[in-house]
Specification:
Blueprint lengths: L9 E14 L6 H5 L6 H9 L5 H5 L16 H9 L17 E4 L2 H18 L5 E19 L17 H12 L4 E5 L6 E5 L5 E14 L4 E6 L5 E3 L2
Parallel strand pairs: 3-4
Antiparallel strand pairs: 1-3, 2-5, 3-6, 4-5, 6-7, 7-8
Length: about 240
């Protein structure tokens, strides 16, 4: 069963401390961090490209974000990068990879379980040996948006919450984008908390770096998490 966008209510959502976990390997993008006025970026990019042909590899495709929805200043890389670095090789629940989505969880545990699932799939598909693997960083950030709220109709959401097959959810999100929607709130299928998928970077703000985490891959799943600062290890249940 696939629910129509018109049948999903819109909720004004405000999370003061949403959680997002990303790979630590991705450094901040200087252009977004150092220059707070996004309207200055196109001219600066044009000038810099004449001497730095690798610039766009770092910035990604800025044209994927409407100028009025771009954000700059400290922490802005964490908001902008999911929208400028997209690929059809990396689809997600609410995108086939052509357009970006900023996924944020309501709490740390939910963010961890969401990340574990996707990391474990990657490790299995690439036949990685067991051991401590990539380091991740926790982001704490504020969300303020009017979102189509699947949580309110979860019992009728059907394929939108399928744990493996994202095709229906991607079509649903595409229909919402054509109506200029801001994004989607939905119950996590990996944990007990909630998640949001934001269609624009300016719907979140004030990202602050939290914990650094190491994930342990046992050959089948991520079974342990280690806080890099203190070395405390926690078993995933």
């Amino acid at each position: 069963m696939v629910i129509a966008p018109a049948d999903v209510p819109v909720s004004q959502l405000h999370w003061e401390q949403g959680r997002r976990i990303i790979r630590s390997v991705y450094p901040p993008i200087d252009l977004f961090e150092d220059i707070a006025e996004p309207e200055d970026w196109p001219l600066l990019i044009s000038a810099e490209q004449k001497t730095n042909p690798r610039l766009m590899e770092s910035i990604g495709n800025l044209d994927l974000i409407p100028p009025e929805r771009r954000v700059g200043g400290p922490g802005s890389s964490f908001l902008m990068a999911p929208f400028t670095h997209t690929s059809t090789a990396r689809p997600s629940r609410f995108s086939d990879g052509r357009l970006g989505v900023l996924y944020i969880a309501s709490d740390f545990e939910t963010a961890v379980h969401e990340t574990i699932y996707h990391h474990a799939r990657f490790m299995a598909q690439t036949d990685q040996a067991p051991g401590w693997t990539s380091q991740f960083r926790e982001l704490v950030l504020e969300v303020e948006a009017a979102l189509h709220d699947i949580r309110a109709v979860a019992s009728d959401a059907g394929d939108l919450l399928d744990p493996e097959d994202y095709r229906a959810a991607q079509a649903f999100a595409d229909a919402l984008r054509r109506k200029q929607a801001q994004g989607i709130a939905y119950p996590s299928v990996r944990a007990e908390g909630d998640c949001v998928g934001l269609f624009y970077p300016d719907l979140a703000c004030a990202p602050v770096q939290g914990r650094h985490l190491d994930y342990h891959w046992n050959g089948q799943t991520v079974d342990l998490i280690r806080e890099a600062a203190g070395g405390d290890v926690f078993r995933v249940t």
